[in-house]
Amino acid sequence: MKFIQIALAVLLVFALPVVAQDKAAGHSAPPPSHGPSAYHGAPKTTPAPHPDTPAQPSHPAAPHVEGKKWVGHDTGPSDPNYHLDQPWQHGHFAGGFGPSHVWRIGGGGPSRFWFNGWYWSVAAADLAFCNDWLWDSDEIVIYEDPDHVGWYLAYNVRLGTYVHVTYLGPQ
Questions:
Q1: Tell me: the pLDDT tens digits for 46-76?
Q2: Distance (Å, rounded) from C-alpha 103 to C-alpha 85?
Q3: I need a surface site. Which of 27, 91, 112, 114 has the fewest CB within 10 A?
Q4: Which residues pair with 108 in a beta bridge?
Q5: Residue 148 in contact with residue 101, Cβ under 8 Å?
Q6: What is the CA radius of gyration of the chain?
Q7: Distance (Å, rounded) from C-alpha 18 to C-alpha 13?
Q8: 163: helix, coil or strand?
Q9: What is the pLDDT of residues 147-156, one digit of tens each?
């Protein structure tokens, strides 16, 4: 009996740091069930500045999801940061959207990364928001962007943040 108690105590000692690391990484909720709704406000003539500091200390400074709200996705379709002269230049992504399709980044960096043989690039306006992404192992979920033609949203499961990405096609 004493052996079982000792074994259980040892197991708990080793399991506790794993749980603490998961919380510290910000992984506290599953990916959103769907992407953001289309913007319905008045058209904005200039894009809203991206925050350098979070609105609340426990929130990331990058665009993120709180419950069903996509925080930071509110500039509407006229945002010049997400204008593409040739949208869908490399075709439409057809690999699957939403939380039932979680992809592990296989390598690269913000200007060109890949998973499962598909290549992507982060929007220049969003580069500062993915400095803490792990380009060889983070899991992401792709959502369609309802406002910005030619863009998708890549949601980082580990961090709970997202960036605008464009599809560069298969390898």
A1: 555 555 544 555 557 789 998 888 988 888 8
A2: 28
A3: 91
A4: 113
A5: no
A6: 19
A7: 10
A8: strand
A9: 999 999 999 9
pTM: 0.78
Q: Residue 102's closest CA among 27, 168, 36?
A: 27
- Judged on CB neighbours under 10 Å (0-12, 13-18, 19+), 110 is buried
Amino acid code (one letter) for 57: P
Q: State the pairing for strand pair 118-122/64-66.
A: unpaired
In contact, 47 and 75? CB cutoff 8 Å: yes
Cβ contacts of 23-28, under 8 Å, gap ≥ 24: 25/158, 25/159, 26/60, 26/158, 26/159, 26/160, 27/157, 27/158, 27/159, 27/160, 28/160
Task: Tabulate helix, strand, coil % of the chain (nearest 5).
Answer: 20, 25, 55
Q: What is the per-residue DSSP string for 60-128?
A: -SS-EEETTEEET--S-TT-GGG--SSTTTT----S--STT-EEE--EEETTEEEETTEEEEE-GGGGG
Q: Rounded to whole angstroms, how far apart are CA atoms 132 and 17?
A: 21
Distance CA 144, CA 154 (A): 9
